[in-house]
Amino acid sequence: MHVDLASYADLAIVLVNSRHRTGADDLRRLDGPRRLDGLRDLDGLRDLLAGRPHLGGGTLRPRDLDAMRELRDQLHAVFTASAAGDHEQAAERLNELLIQHPVHPQLSAHDGLDWHLHVNEGGAVPDVYAARAAMGLAVRVAEHGIDRLRVCRTDGCGRVFLDTTKDRSRHHCPDHAADEDNVGDPGDPGDPGDAEGRAPDAPADGPPVSADATDGPRVSADAPNGRAGPRA
Ligand SMILES: [Zn+2]
Ligand SMILES: [Zn+2]
Question: Measured in angstroms, how far is the CA atom of residue 169 from the centroid of ligand 2?
Fold first, then answer.
């Protein structure tokens, strides 16, 4: 197994965002999306860990759930500090996590593979998870900058994410990338028509919005309005 420490940052993001998990099915509910705590019980924790077999196995206990919730709060605090512009505090909190959950690299050779690195093998799931998540986040921060740790600005969202755009312009999670258009500078003379043709200097790594996507939340000025006519 190839170890890419930076990819472990994803563990931190997934865990923090389990605070309010909205399932794809929930989004279609007529009474509005249900937002459940992804760590409401051990089944929730098992769901979160599904597809990540390298985190260790064994029976999950209630105290593992408590440990994961505590880790989640700690990681969340790193993001909220950064999003509030308090980068000093964000770094301090992340450093505390790195001290609390040291990384233990080990060389391993198995399944005919050459000697390669494994990280924190064999510990309890929360310990393995914490060491990898903190390390991954720290590697990302060192690579991109601590201000890249963001909290989505869409009302009621609160999901965290890593802004890796060149111009550090992303302020909304991938689910709310469409809201990014509303962040434009307030002095901009209204030009609602520019959605069709992006300026040539628009960042190429912005949200992948295609001009002919019709299922997005964008409101077009010339949308046929079937209810405009007088009712009989
Ligand atoms: Zn391996
Ligand atoms: Zn969001």
Answer: 15
